[in-house]
């Protein structure tokens, strides 16, 4: 290989390196943001303009200045109390629904969430997204990864072309200077010859192989992280039971049917007998209600399809969270009372549990059990007692 070509190959590698590292930081920002968003915000917000518990966050970076967003995420109630008009209007519009504060999020983390929201909206919309009925589109399904990959491949192709063109120029120049005068060959022909030369160059080949391997490795890791995550899962049920109708319109309490949710580990899915409390009188003739009768006659339970399902290795207790922790169902399940078909809104990953345990204050008011702990904690800490301070990050609390 002549010296000029060698310089070019070096140039190629530094360019590749620069490019790969820029890509990596960008992708990492959006990827960190994606995890943070899915673990902390997705129960109440979509990254599109769909309204869930709170407004869809699409376009938020244009709607609000970043300083405002940071203040808001750290402490929404403080922003509202400060008299901020935008915040108060929004709060009233959402019927004074209180957003969870995230005082521990760094500005960088909040920016990465916004980067993810912007990236997922910049990505070309999935073909079905427009046509799907409202609510059926999986929240945050559009991954920032998709757009990044397209961008990456596009830039790579451009780069290779620029390189070949440069090589052509260098070759022509060196031939001119050495007095060879075959530069009459048509431009395209020279271009093709140089492309061949470049492809034959072993350093370039190795470079391309390494790059392909890196790219493949990243895709594999991404796929592995996605395994077992069923966010957005909303299976069809054997009876068209609607939470929107029962829990929303008729305002039947969640624990009327999910009898264990404040007392036990499991929330329980109601047996047909509970349905019969009402449906022995209401809508008896409906074919859907007839299915309840059939189940009771055959003495078989209704075959509800399970939506949320942690692996056996993890221990989760409802009453610990709803009763002791005073959390609302929507913190983890989203607004089920607005769902025609139940959908899994949170990721249910370990990171999701841990993130919340890092951020959430222990509800210690009026709980004598915590008095001593709070006293000890406040002696050497200025921040309120968090779940992580009572052992919420210990492996054995969540794993048998
Ligand atoms: C428990 C539900 C809930 C969670 C969790 C939640 N929010 Fe909110 N958020 C709301 C509600 C409700 C509003 C509307 C204002 C109000 O009622 O307080 C809102 C408003 C906002 C707004 C202003 C939106 C606009 O259109 O101006 C931003 C920004 C925001 N949230 C960001 C976040 C981020 C980032 C997270 C995750 C770190 C998050 N929220 C988690 C419920 C939630
Ligand atoms: C009239 C009875 C009834 C009421 C009231 C009710 N549910 Fe349900 N719920 C069901 C039935 C039946 C299922 C199983 C079928 C389904 O998924 O739609 C279910 C399923 C669920 C699931 C999914 C369970 C799984 O398999 O993972 C969640 C979460 C849930 N309900 C939450 C709530 C919340 C939150 C409320 C209150 C806002 C509520 N439910 C009120 C009857 C009820
Ligand atoms: C506390 C009373 C109550 C309970 C308990 C209850 N329902 Fe209902 N259900 C209603 C009411 C009220 C309606 C609306 C009837 C109407 O539209 O006239 C309804 C409507 C329905 C419908 C729609 C029927 C149709 O064809 O329009 C289905 C399906 C249904 N319920 C299934 C169930 C199932 C399954 C359970 C048990 C998990 C259940 N319901 C428990 C009160 C109840
Ligand atoms: C801290 C988060 C959290 C809160 C708050 C929460 N849930 Fe759950 N819920 C879960 C998880 C996690 C699962 C899956 C449990 C499993 O697979 O073992 C689940 C499962 C369920 C199921 C499926 C049946 C079962 O027992 O596994 C129902 C029904 C349910 N929740 C209803 C509710 C209702 C109603 C409320 C509010 C009163 C509520 N949940 C509050 C996290 C939560
Ligand atoms: C929305 C926030 C939130 C999420 C999500 C959440 N937790 Fe919790 N968790 C809490 C709070 C708050 C407490 C403290 C309750 C109390 O006061 O004892 C708690 C306490 C616990 C405890 C008892 C800890 C101790 O030291 O006493 C366990 C175990 C636990 N959670 C398991 C889980 C698991 C497993 C998941 C995920 C599947 C999960 N949690 C998801 C908020 C959350
Ligand atoms: C607050 C609850 C919680 C704590 C604390 C916790 N885990 Fe987990 N862990 C979970 C949940 C929930 C899952 C299941 C997640 C899933 O299915 O994606 C899990 C999954 C795992 C898995 C299986 C991973 C996989 O992909 O199947 C391992 C291994 C694990 N945890 C190890 C640990 C270790 C080690 C610690 C202590 C440093 C720990 N966990 C602390 C909740 C917790």
Explain this structure.
Residues 28-121 form the Cytochrome c domain. This is C-type cytochrome. The chain has 400 residues and is mainly α. Among the domains are: 1-232, Cytochrome Bc1 Complex, Chain D, domain 2, CATH 1.10.760; 361-400, no CATH class. It has 18 helices and no strands. It has helices spanning 3-41, 60-63, 66-74, 76-81, 85-93, 107-122, 144-177, 187-200, 202-226, 243-249, 254-257, 272-279, 287-298, 318-324, 329-333, 350-359, 368-379, 395-398. Helix 12 crosses helix 13. The N and C termini lie far apart (63 Å). Residues 125-145 have low confidence and may be disordered. It binds heme C (6 copies). One heme C binds at residues 228, 310-311, 314, 349-350, 353-354, 357, 392-395, 397-399.
What's the SSE blueprint?
Elements: H1 3-41, H2 60-63, H3 66-74, H4 76-81, H5 85-93, H6 107-122, H7 144-177, H8 187-200, H9 202-226, H10 243-249, H11 254-257, H12 272-279, H13 287-298, H14 318-324, H15 329-333, H16 350-359, H17 368-379, H18 395-398
Short key terms for the protein model shown above:
Cytochrome Bc1 Complex, Chain D, domain 2, binds heme C
What ligand species are in this complex? heme C
Tell me the β content. under 5%
CATH topology name of the domain at 1-232, in short, is Cytochrome Bc1 Complex, Chain D, domain 2
Q: Percentage of helical residues? A: 55-70%
Mind telling me the CATH class of the domain at 1-232?
Answer: Mainly Alpha
Shape: elongated
What low-confidence regions span 5 or more consecutive residues with pLDDT below 50? 125-145
Topology as a string of helices (H) and strands (E): HHHHHHHHHHHHHHHHHH
Number of strands: 0
* Sheet with most strands: none
Q: What structural class do the secondary elements suggest? A: mainly alpha
CATH architecture identity of the domain at 1-232: Orthogonal Bundle
Distance between the termini: 63 Å
Radius of gyration: 29 Å
């Amino acid at each position: 290989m002549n010296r000029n070509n060698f310089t070019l190959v070096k140039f190629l590698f530094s360019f590749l390196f620069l490019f790969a590292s820029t890509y990596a930081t960008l992708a990492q920002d959006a990827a960190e943001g994606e995890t943070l968003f899915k673990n902390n915000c997705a129960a109440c917000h979509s990254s599109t303009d769909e309204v869930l518990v709170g407004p869809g966050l699409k376009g938020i970076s244009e709607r609000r200045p970043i300083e405002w967003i940071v203040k808001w995420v750290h402490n929404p109630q403080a922003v509202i109390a400060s008299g901020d008009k935008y915040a108060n209007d929004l709060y009233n519009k959402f019927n004074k629904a209180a957003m969870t504060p995230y005082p521990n999020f760094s500005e960088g983390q909040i920016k990465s969430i916004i980067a993810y929201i912007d990236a997922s909206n910049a990505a070309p919309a999935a073909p079905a997204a427009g046509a799907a009925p409202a609510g059926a589109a999986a929240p945050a399904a559009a991954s920032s990864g998709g757009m990044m990959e397209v961008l990456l491949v596009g830039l790579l192709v451009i780069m290779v072309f620029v390189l070949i063109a440069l090589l052509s120029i260098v070759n022509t120049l060196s031939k001119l200077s050495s007095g060879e005068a075959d530069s009459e060959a048509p431009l395209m022909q020279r271009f093709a010859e140089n492309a061949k030369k470049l492809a034959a160059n072993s350093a370039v080949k190795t470079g391309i192989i390494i790059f392909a391997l890196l790219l493949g490795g990243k895709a594999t890791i991404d796929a592995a992280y996605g395994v077992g995550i069923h966010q957005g899962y909303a299976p069809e049920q054997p009876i068209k039971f609607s939470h929107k109708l029962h829990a929303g319109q008729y305002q039947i309490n969640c624990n009327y049917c999910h009898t264990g949710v404040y007392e036990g580990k499991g929330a329980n899915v109601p047996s047909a007998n509970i349905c019969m409390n009402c449906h022995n009188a209401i809508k008896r003739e409906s074919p859907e209600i007839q299915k309840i009768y059939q189940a009771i006659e055959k003495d078989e339970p209704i075959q509800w399809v399970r939506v949320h399902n942690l692996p056996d290795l993890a221990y989760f207790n409802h009453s610990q969270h709803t009763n002791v922790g005073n959390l609302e169902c929507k913190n983890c399940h989203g607004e089920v009372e607005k769902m025609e078909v139940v959908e899994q809104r949170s990721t249910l990953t370990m990171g999701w549990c841990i993130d919340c345990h890092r951020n959430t204050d222990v509800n210690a008011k009026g709980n004598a059990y915590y008095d001593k702990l709070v006293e000890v904690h406040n002696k050497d800490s200025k921040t309120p007692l968090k779940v992580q301070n009572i052992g919420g990050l210990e492996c054995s609390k969540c794993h048998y």
